[in-house]
Design goal:
Length: about 100
Amino acid sequence: MSRLRPDRLFRDLGWWQRVLVEARLCWRLLWERRVAFYLKLIPLSAVIYFISPYDLIPDFIIPGIGQVDDFLVLFLACRLFLRLIPEEIVREHFTAM
């Protein structure tokens, strides 16, 4: 397994563009056959958490902050997913975008 630092791929992008590119890259890699199934469970479980009614910080206790934790889980899961996939596969998909 490679320790790809997504910072190296996205250094010329602003933070919002970087988030969107990482999301697209995660989506593309979910359909890649060379990526192990157990790694694909990382972003899939984050999406399930996002749509589930159970939260670490309930949405009704602190309005606004409750939704932020959902997006934070999605963001961190995507970053972890990109770091655990072999670097050559990530680079191949990044250059193809």
